[in-house]
Amino acid sequence: MPATAPDPTKRAAEKAPEQQPPEIHAAHPMDKNPIQSKWYDPLVSRFLRLAASGWVPASWFRKPLPPESERAARTGALDIEIVSHCWQYAHFLAYQLSSLALYPPTKATVTMTVYYNGEDEKTRALLDFFSRQQVPGVTWNWRELPKQSLFRRAIGRNQAALNSCADWIWFTDCDLLFREGCLDGLADALQGRKDALVFPASERITTLLADDDPMFDFDLAQLRLVDIDDSRFVEQQRTRATGPLQIAHGDIARAAGYCDSLGYYQKPAEKWCKAHEDRAFRWLLGTPGIPVEVPGVYRIRHASKGRYTGSELSTRIRSGVRKATSEL
Questions:
Q1: Which of 48-52, 192-196, 309-313 has the lowest mean pLDDT?
Q2: How many alpha carbons lie under 13 Å from residue 145 in its C-beta half-sphere?
Q3: Please, are residues 165 and 134 in contact by the beta-carbon 8 Å criterion?
Q4: I need a labelling partner for 193 at 20 to 30 A (CA). Which of 13, 47, 67, 88 fits?
Q5: Vertex 132, ends 248 and 175: CA angle to 5°?
Q6: Max Cα separation, the chain?
Q7: Using CA atoms, how far apart are residues 253 and 100, in angstroms rounded to an integer?
Q8: Tell me, what's the pLDDT at 33?
Q9: pLDDT tens-digit profile of 139-175?
């Protein structure tokens, strides 16, 4: 484990005077009746995807945003909230949370928020394990959602955005790692900035890994901190704030939420939904994001999407398509 981080500045210390046990928020009672889809839902989904491509002015749906002149330009030790979510991906989340424990921030205070559902026993056990890990500069924040709400990723992100007290909020996925220098580099890059949305200019990624890759060994009986083999990752440049790389200014997030004005993206679902709202979020903010130099951003790529439901054949087809498109 790295050495204990130095004391944060007075402002950060006043916000987080000491490491507290993680706050666990229970899910609301789940509706026993299946969620009834409306006949027009596919049409709404298609319309919003086209709208976010630029076919419709975002001003038709955008909530009022604070102009740049009214946004805080924070300096010193920043408050950063990271918002992730996990359903049947504990083997990825283990690497994400471990990266915070192995490479804790020294120039920022971080709240690590994870949305989950207790039916996912592996994730629940993993969160319980990390609840007992005391990491300087990091506060664990587990938030349980009904399964149907977890399946629509924008719901948790929207709750976090509207309620966060952070200077900046990093919306991400549980396959992203914050390794050496990442969060300190981000804190340096964000000094005095007022941009609505930024993103790391580059990340290091794996090839698409198979389900039986040794990296995915996960034993509930032997939970521990884990790290990756750096040699399996290659650098890739990014051109926009994609789903796991969306870092929003806190004032913007509290005003806009995460697609809070698009009711369709706040509706619970019976199965995991593809995250088309990632593009809608950029569309509503009116920016693809501004690239900033952030070291130590790693992402584990995987061929099989275990969180999706469906037949074995459809899963095999989906995985095959992912492999083919990744090689283009």
A1: 309-313
A2: 26
A3: no
A4: 13
A5: 40
A6: 57
A7: 23
A8: 58
A9: 999 999 999 999 999 999 999 999 999 999 999 999 9
The Cα–Cα gap between 69 and 73 comes to 9
Q: Hey, what are 35's tokens? A: 């969620």
Place of tokens 């349980």: 144
Contact criterion met (CB below 8 Å) for 286 and 191: no
What would the pLDDT profile of 189-223 be if each residue is shown by its tens digit?
999 999 999 999 999 999 999 989 999 988 888 99
Distances (CA, A) of 94 to 51, 218, 231: 36, 9, 19
Placement of tokens 């001003």 in the chain: 59
- Measure CA of the first residue to CA of the last residue in the chain; give whole Å: 40
Return the structure tokens found at 135: 């990491």
Amino acid at 110: V
Taking each helix axis from N to C terminus, what angle separates 90-102 and 121-131, rounded to the nearest 10 degrees?
10
Please count the other Cβ atoms lying within 10 Å of the Cβ belonging to residue 273.
18
Q: Which amino acid is at 190?
A: L
What does the block give as tokens for 216? 């995915």
Task: Calculate helix-pair angle for 153-163, 277-285, nearest 10 degrees.
Answer: 40
